[in-house]
Amino acid sequence: MKRFDLRACSRREAVEAAAAALKNGGVAVFPTDTVYGIAAHPDFPDALERIYRIKGRRQDKPVAFLASDASAPERCGAAMPPRARELAAAGWPGALTLVLDCPGGTEGFRVPDSEIAREIIAECGGLLRVTSANFSGQPSVAELTVADGPFCALCDVVVDGGPCPGGFPSEVVRVAADGSEKVLRARPAASPCA
Question: Which residues contact 68 (CB under 8 A, 6 or more apart)?
Answer without folding.
Answer: 111, 118, 119, 121, 122, 126, 127
